[in-house]
Amino acid sequence: MDWSEMREMHRSGMSIKQIGLRTGCDRKTVRKYIAADEPPRYEREDRGSVLDPYKDHLKKRLAEHPLSAARLFREIKEQGYAGSLTTVKRYIAPFKEMSRISAEIRFETKPGEQAQVDWIDLGRVQVGATVEHVYVFVMVLSWSRMRFIRMTTDCRTDTFIECHLLAFEHFGGWTKTILYDNLKSVVLKRAVLSSESTFNPMYLDFARHYGITPRLCRPGIEGAKTKGKVERTVQYVEKDFLLGSKFNDISHANSLGLAWCDRVNSEVHGTTHEVPRERWPKEGLTPFGQFVPYSLTYFESRKADRECFVRYANNFYSIPWTYAKRLCQLEIRDGMLVIKCSGEVIARHDLVPGCDVRVRDPEHFAGLHKLKRDESRARHEKRLAKNSKGTAPMFSFQAPLEVERRDLSTYDAFMGGAS
After folding, report:
1. What is the pTM of this model?
2. For residue 33, what pLDDT is reported?
3. Which of 124, 261, 278, 362 is the most buried (most CB within 10 A)?
């Protein structure tokens, strides 16, 4: 009960005792409230804060740099502060909020200047009759907002580059720069400056071939804002295409994906308020068809088996028999398989379709049959020489016994047949 209600009860005729019973307050408290002309005020003695001697230092440091609470806590602790980190956090929270900029700046690029790329990791999903780990490659042209997607069952660097080539073919060209997240397919070691980073050599060879300058966004949430066009496209793909869709296989998924791209690229974009396909001719892309095609090379390592074959893509390819059981390096380019060992080219094969197909070059086995035959003969002669020196043979053979030959009627009589 507050002060005004107690006074109202007293004016209505209730005694101090009755008011005390009703409110649960002591009669002295009720009498004090009734007699007061205004609500009682309770003032707590300000004992100060353990942080008071260090507040000027905190304000000064926050004005200079947006330092963390933990950093400031260590600094004042060295000056003698005996309080807790929580106290520091509570004090600097308003200053942090005031320094935070809520406004955002939309970055727009010139036509043909930039594209943005990202992956969608769908995890293991049902594709037809099988369950596979599926990824979706997404590229968007920053100015026109033209979009391209490609579904794959891996996100290797060679697959990553192949998706770029398909996107360039779809768009009819490529932009001067491409903005990426810090993907291992692009950068192996991120530096503060994007240009000083250690790039994936396989990707870098591809980018140099087409004269593309790779750009890397900053790590964290702030970095994600710099590639907002592809981030929003990723969300759109997930909600408008992937959600609730079923695919017979990856080829079927990609055909539906291209149909989806054709549809959304022909609709008015929510930001530009224009149709991406109508803006696209003004991009001024570097023409894809007028450039020397990039020869995509895949690199793998395999150990040859004892039968002188190396396995790649579920098929077997022969190597010279002298390299059996050795580690080989594979280079796959333009439908050709080049097999190396210690940097030396030892075999070349045309890639063949199918599964468990053995591609055999007779020259790889030349001399092997004679060598194995000579080796077997040498072992046999060695055993014979050992036996001739008095060693008892492991097996003894006797001349065949002479068996009497009888007329068949004899056996019939024995079995109870004819007499």
Report:
1. 0.57
2. 83
3. 261
